[in-house]
Amino acid sequence: MPKITTLLFDCDNTLVLSEELAFEACAExxxxxxxxxxxxxxxxxxTLIKEFVGQNFRGxxxxxxxxxxxxxxxxxxxxxxxxxxxxxxxxxKAALKPCPGVDAQLESLQAAGKYKLAVVSSSAKRRVWASVxxxxxxxxxPEDDIFSAATSLPVPTSKPDPAIYTYALEKLGKKADExxxxxxxxxxxxxxxxxxxxxxxYIGPYAEDRQPEMEKxxxxxxxxxxxxxxxxxxxxxxxxxxxxx
Length: 245
Description:
Layout: E1 6-9, H1 19-36, H2 45-52, H3 57-68, H4 74-95, H5 102-112, E2 116-121, H6 125-134, E3 146-148, H7 163-172, E4 179-183, H8 186-194, E5 198-202, H9 211-220, E6 225-227, H10 233-242
Parallel strand pairs: 1-2, 1-4, 2-3, 4-5, 5-6
Helix pairs in contact: 1-2, 1-4, 4-6
GO molecular function: phosphatase activity
Protein name: HAD-superfamily hydrolase
Keywords: Hydrolase
């Protein structure tokens, strides 16, 4: 069994409680786009999360166009993507908090010095960096160790495409079998597993009545261990390292 040397963390609702804030900002913009293209459907932050959790804004817009049979020009698409980034970053800077218990685990991992730590996200790098800086997690993750499917790749994409995990491994000089990813969504889990990485599924940010459903969704997507709280992380990682998961 290869030795685990690298831990790759999703950002939104894994390191920081950003999904709700981000989707509120997204919903306002998506509804504006719907109105301008005669699409009757309207979204709240909550309904948008159910429909598109784990995807970045570009992925949401592509899905929306396909579902409703309209097309944005590439110029319109880029303008909306930039506007969404600005709106979300403003909300995050005002109210973002870390996921409960994650900082204690990051402190412990950093002190042990056994693993390379990096962030692998669907969200734009500017937004991810603003998030980690806001909650003080930049002490664990230098900017060069943050990888974004929306902005780091030659061609922007979104999880569940495994491209961003493959890219991060390449840049870090690591192999898939020496890495573990931590993800909270179906699309993120698929992205990691499709890149050949073992995934720990984190369901802590979901409402308690949704946790059993999300555990099944994330397990079905390929997560080998599930944790509800960050305090369970050392045991989850130990299971993978011992070959038990």
